[in-house]
Amino acid sequence: MKKTFARKYLGIPYAIFLVLFVIAPLLVLFYYAFTNATGHFTVENLIGFFTDSNTIGTLLYSLALALVVTLVCLLIAYPIAYVLARSKFNSKSVVIMLFVMPMWINFTLRLTALKEILTAIEGNLAFHPFINTVIGMTYDFLPFMILPLYNTISKLDGSLLEAARDLGAGEIQVFLKVTLPLSMPGIVSGTAMVFLPAMTNYVVPDMLYNSTYIMGSLIGSYFSAYDWHNGSMIALVLLLIIVLFTLLTGSEEEEKRGGALL
Amino acid sequence: MSDRYIIELNSITKTYEDNGFTAVEDFNLKVKQGEFVTFLGPSGCGKTTTLRMIAGFELPSSGQILLDGQDIAQFPPNKRPINTVFQRYALFPHMNIYDNIAFGLKLKKMKPELIKKKVSHVLEMVDLEGFEKRKVSTLSGGQQQRIAIARALVNEPKILLLDEPLGALDLKMRKEMQLELKNMHAKLGITFIYVTHDQEEALTMSDKIVVMNNGRTQQIGTPEDIYNEPKNAFVADFIGQSNIFKGIMTGHLKARFAGGEFECMDDVPEGTLVDVVVRPEDVIITKPEDGIITGKVTSVIFKGIHYEIAVESGKYEMVIQSIKSAKVGDTIGMSLEPEGIHIMIAEDHTTRFEAEIGDDLNLVYSDRTIPCDVTKVFPGSRIKDGELFDASGEKIDTSEIKVLVSIQPGDIQLSDDVEAGLTSGKIINLIYKGDHYSYVVRTIHGHDLIVDDEYLWNMDDTVGLVMPEDKMTFSIKK
Amino acid sequence: MKKIAGPIIVVLGLIFVYAPILILAVYSFTDATTIGAIRGFSLSNYITLFTTPELGSMIWGTVALALVSSVLATILGTVGAIGSFYSDKRIGKTFGAANQIPVVNADVVTAFSLCILLVVVLGVSKDTFIPLIIGHVVLSAPFVYLSVMPKLKQMDSSLYEAALDLGASPAQALAKIIIPQIFSGIVSGFAMAITLSLDDYFIATYTKPATFDTISTYVVNATRGSHTEIKTALWGLSTVIFLIVLAVAISMNLYRGKVKSEERSDA
Asked: What is the pLDDT at residue A19?
């Protein structure tokens, strides 16, 4: 139907807001990444990033960390989500709520709690920086993995599992050939919500005395040094990774990312 | 009913800007104060769009809508003294029944005591007294329907629009509501404009029916007119069951169709090509020797109050409704009273399109070549060294000339292979005409053309349109 | 065996999530400075928490920032969703895609790019709080948009037309029909905005005035320092927030149960 009334014009303020404060900053970022302090065009920042063994090391370390964190989250979250989604327990929603509730507590305070516990157990956090960071991030991001998995698995049509059993599949085969493939959308959106923060949320390693940089820490250090140009280049590389990731996981999943949190 | 026209629609056309689709074309209608008018047609025929233009939800691309003589075509809906009963009722779920019905009155800043009185009065009218405090979700479909009607009527509209209001109800409820609506209309004296695709509903309730198809009015008339004197094959086919044949007038009040010559009541000049409609209940079964035509019974189905008998007569098929039964395989005679024959002058269904002359002196239409001899287009012309010369030997410049190609509906063949023909399209309408089907095919270029084919294709089939060159006639477009 | 395995997994998960918070809560009521030592009961952490002006202004500043930015984000996101929903398909899609950028983008990148645009290029002073508030609106408005949009899609489109038909102007129909119909989406969007703002560290770090701290930036700085009294007072803060969240969650559950049973008794 042709809209004769002005409802669509309500979008204008938000459209202007998005252009000014979402799109324009990204354009500025692009400009700064390819200029130097005197405002001249340069590819030095780009070359610098890929030739400096420190930055490349940081990139690889971040990717490895994110990969491990995502896997650990998945290994913990999947059984929990699976058990909850398939159980006939009446107050499932209460249990899910229990897993979501910590997200409402400020993450730095939760990390403080975790840090005190780990210190009590390990004595000195500095001895296991990588493992502590993985534990910290898992602790922080776990709900983001459980929720999409739970939503996907609980919507799974039970008759499909019965059909597979009826056709002669054993419990393990049913899981591997039916349940797991059908829970892929949940795995994908959970991964999308854990992987990127794991590369960038440098508060977690910071607070747990891990002195190795991740990609986010690089931006932080350039910010402290007022080096906007190199900082922009790092941000741009991260943006590129995000774009690639989004393309890989499919844009449909992204809509759910917001929905899963609500 | 008075003789004053309360609303007039003058050459209303609605074309959507974004896709160029014309939903309603040149719609004209005059409605008298207090009339019950029904827009009837298949889905997508433009009936709902027309209703929405009267309500103001859509604005016509051109034309006038005169309400009591004032043009309201460009008014927004809230500035029109017209109210609508929506297909799915559109009751506001977050308000109780009272607030739903009082919505319009509160906006008019009416006194609360008066609103209260009016609401309880209108609830009484729809037999739902005391429902004021109920929530919408606690009501059955039929009750929601009544509340929707009450909510519209309480505003005392000059015209009440009803958009398939009974569509969501079950059969029994629907019959009840039909009667109730009819009574309400008689009691209130308000003009009703009703949209439905259900012909029985339209015939039962209306003073006047507007039959629509493909955005165009097919016929406007009383239910009796529409049923007994359908104006064209579409109306005859859509309203009730009918046998439709192609025929020709063979003399004064005489027509030849379905393999016989019959006397009729329509005075149409001799030699005119006609479509003939025969209602199944008007066919008289006789002994074979007494019938004007004879045929073999192919099926008999008992329908409760009558038998439905299918008869094959030569290449024609006739469906008969009769209280007498027949045996499959029997040969019977059939005759018709003149009143039982409805003659419609056949429309000219010739397909015409423009083609260009290509470099190799073939005709070209939308990148496809029609392999024909161009010399047929230009009498007396001839081809020499790849150039075309006219009868007097002068060279013809073919680049500027357009050729008008005509072909009859019966000469176009349909094909499963969309690449097979000159063009392809989708079947958007079909009517059985005794010995063949008449299809309307909308081509990929957006033209509608008529194709007659003896085989049954389905609605929405995509078909190739094969047009044999030898069946085409050519003329030069000036 | 199988029957117990399921609940055990869930309980272990819950222990992992809650143990640190609960243990910290217990220790917040002692005078211990590290976890592990067994010490006597004390309310000194809470006394510090509620009497230190620095902590008070940091907490109220965070709350005020969350309220202001969430109200702005809710208004912008809601009208944005309505406008986008009723626009042509192509405009709506572009809208949705632009809205998605801050959602998928890393917070550090969003924060850094906003800082460059507003502070470095446009020269807006961080002390005006404008970059900080804009930053938090950028963070949360997209989620308001995402929570309102499904409500618009679920709504029967003829409700709006019915309101116009009964004499409402477009603005009246919007206020009396559309807004009430999507209200639950607006509320959950607002709640989401509050949560995001309270939880944020990166936007605040890159756009806040030097003298202003949110809970996140304050906690991160405090863990770097060696001020033990402040450190343990934060344990108290963590416990207070946990109790508030618990109370909100319980009352929400009770409310939902009540609405459900009411619906049942109505039907």
From this structure: 96
In a domain, B219, yes or no: yes
CATH code where residue B75 lies: 3.40.50.300
Residue reference for tokens 């780009």: A46
**Does the CB of C174 have a partner CB in chain A at under 8 Å?**
yes
How many angstroms separate the CA atoms of B40 and B211, rounded? 5
Tally of CA atoms within 13 A in the half-sphere of A124 that contains its CB: 2
* Per-residue pLDDT tens over the stretch C226-257: 777 888 899 999 999 999 999 998 898 888 77
CATH of residue B292 = 2.40.50.140
Q: Would you mind telling me the total number of residues written for chain B in this entry?
A: 478
Q: CA-nearest residue of chain C to A89?
A: C7
| Beta-carbon separation of C167 and B108 below 8 A | yes
Cβ distance A87 to C6 less than 8 Å, yes or no, reads yes
Q: Count of domains in chain A?
A: 1
Identity of the amino acid at A235: A
* Pairing of β B341-345 and β B273-278: antiparallel
Q: What is the CATH number of the domain that holds A257?
A: 1.10.3720.10
- Sign (positive or negative) of CA dihedral B355, B356, B357, B362: negative
**Contact flag C167-B155 (C-beta cutoff 8 Å):** yes
Q: Is the CB of residue A167 less than 8 Å away from at least one CB of chain B?
A: no
B-contacting chains (≥3 CB pairs under 8 Å): A, C
Q: Is C259 on the interface with B (CB under 8 A)?
A: no
Classify the C-alpha dihedral B74-B79-B83-B88 as positive or negative.
positive
User: What pLDDT is stored for residue A2 in this prediction?
Assistant: 39
CB spacing of C113 vs A235 below 8 angstroms: yes
Predicted complex ipTM: 0.89
Residue B272 lies in a domain: yes
B267 and B358: one domain? no
Nearest Cα of chain B lies from the Cα of C50 at a distance, in angstroms, of 44
Q: B17 and A2: CB-CB below 8 Å? A: yes
**CA distances (Å), C146 to each of A97, B101, C100, in order?**
21, 33, 9
Domains, chain C: 55-231 (1.10.3720.10)
Instruction: Name subunits touching C (3+ CB pairs < 8 A).
Output: A, B
pLDDT digits (tens, 9 = 90+) for A203-214: 999 999 888 899
Nearest CA in chain C to A193: C104
Domain co-membership, B111 together with B58 = yes
pTM: 0.77
Q: Say whether C229 sits in a helix, a strand or coil.
A: helix
